[in-house]
Write a structure and sequence with these properties.
Elements (H helix, E strand, L loop, with lengths): L5 E7 L3 E8 L5 E8 L2 H8 L9 E6 L6 H9 L3 E5 L1 H10 L7 H15 L9 H31 L6 H32 L1 H8 L6 H11 L8 H8 L3 E6 L3 E7 L5 H17 L1 H12 L4 H21 L15
Length: 331
């Protein structure tokens, strides 16, 4: 039986989507076009394949928020799609020695990646997960703005020509941030209790995982259905070590890759700080690496990966966290 599946490579930006379609079996280029990044454009992308919707596989890069509405549309139309880390596409292009850098060329590269690598279809987030993700994103922004405002208050109080009105305005703004952040926290807690209370409780049982990391994990990763291993999960988060090595002249670790989800990366790094003092397996790992002369940051990255491994096993395989599980084995 012939494989007539069609891969659509999509390069998305704020206002437009460049598309390249290739027939999988023959590698024949079917079309190259550009559409607007809105509902009308989405329909135009699919229209030429209206009789072959079941054969389509749309492949696109993770692009901040630019791809969200498009993937929501694809989900409603029951069209298979994959969201690929941009670094993978970049490395694929380098491997192919492709030098041309235009939006249309990028769409073709993404389509070729889809043909050759056959990325795993994306498992969309549930409605409650999308709500949690949106709430968490806004909460993080408000916290950053509150911190900036507190810093403004501190520096303002160092001046000699401040006024009661100026100080009052800053304090009032901080109070407003506190109120709105509290509202978001309450809504997040209510959603978790309603939809994910069992998972949330299991995550909190892991020493070092707090409420913010647990809720963030649920919002961004759900049941981990898009990951086959904890290493894939760590790569998605972007907390794997960045190593530069070439011959004998270059051999060093330069922190973390930072190619992934920035919010989760921050949460797990902070969780690692706690786990290195409270989670027995993480304590042993951290101390062993420090004794070997590793930098504290490198040791904490290893601890974060240990936490991800524990978390992955608990959610993916529905296990219960055991504090001293296999503690005598080499971590």
């Amino acid at each position: 039986m012939k494989d007539n599946k069609i891969v659509l490579g999509c390069d998305l930006s704020k206002d437009k989507i460049d598309i390249a379609s290739i027939e999988k079996q023959s590698s024949k280029i079917l079309s190259e076009t550009t559409e607007t990044n809105n509902l009308k454009g989405f329909k135009n992308i699919i229209k030429p394949f209206s009789s072959k919707v079941g054969e389509l596989h749309v492949v696109l890069e993770a692009t901040g928020n630019y791809h969200i509405k498009f993937t929501d549309f694809l989900e409603k139309e029951n069209i298979k799609f994959s969201i690929v880390n941009p670094l993978r596409i970049k490395r694929f292009a380098q491997m192919k020695m492709l030098r041309l850098k235009t939006d249309k060329a990028d769409a073709m590269i993404i389509a070729q990646y889809g043909i050759e690598q056959t990325p795993k279809p994306h498992k969309p987030l549930t409605t409650p997960q999308k709500e949690l993700k949106a709430l968490g994103t806004v909460r993080n922004h408000l916290i950053k703005q509150r911190t900036m405002t507190k810093n403004l208050l501190h520096s303002h109080n160092l001046l000699t020509d401040t006024t009661k009105e100026s100080v009052s305005a800053i304090i009032s703004t901080i109070k407003t941030f506190n109120v709105e952040i509290k509202k978001l926290d309450d809504k997040i807690e209510a959603l978790i209790k309603e939809h994910y209370n069992d998972t949330y409780s299991k995550l909190l049982s892991i020493k070092g995982i707090g409420p913010k990391t647990a809720s963030g994990t649920i919002a961004h990763l759900g049941d981990l259905g898009n990951f086959e291993s904890y290493k894939q999960m760590a790569s998605f988060i972007g907390i794997t070590p960045a190593i530069r090595q070439s011959g004998k002249s270059l051999n060093k670790t330069t922190g973390i890759t930072k190619q992934g989800n920035a919010n989760l990366r921050t949460l797990f790094y902070l969780a690692a700080l706690s786990a290195s003092r409270s989670n027995l397996a993480c304590i042993n790992l951290y101390n062993r690496l420090i004794l070997k002369g590793k930098q504290k940051k490198t040791a904490l990255i290893a601890v974060a990966n240990k936490l991800i491994k524990q978390l992955f096993a608990i959610i993916k395989f529905n296990r219960t966290y055991i504090y001293n599980y296999n503690i005598n084995l080499v971590s």
